[in-house]
Task: structure prediction
Amino acid sequence: MQDGDLGAWEKPRILLVLEDCLARPAFRTQRQGLKRTSVLADPDDWDWAITSVKTIMRYAYNSVPCEIITFLSQEAADLAAVWFNRYDIEVASVEYYSYSHFCRSLTWRRNNIQEIIDTDPERVLRYGQLGRTILWDSEF
Result:
């Protein structure tokens, strides 16, 4: 409470999984000597779910923080954060987690999480009551 306000100090937040929920990251092959490796392409080349991104902007307008999480890599999180900044899309954070570590951390993090939105029904089962499945490029 602050200045007689009876509202909760921490607002519930929404967690969205980046891959297949907000974007489908594109990869390009890069040659290193005789080896070819696959690296993430520029985020402008990714397939973005525009309807879902617009929904994030609507939540930000209503002061509901949306956090983006990814299970791909720290590089994917960094590239997505750059893309969100480039196009003035207000997200609270973009973070990388290993999937098993994220699921284990839900036991102590769940107090102020409103929901975790994902497109993979098998992953949503591990989120418990916090998980919600959406279709690609849809509102949530």
Helices lie at 50-61, 74-86, 99-109, 121-127. The mean pLDDT is 89. The longest strand covers residues 27-32.
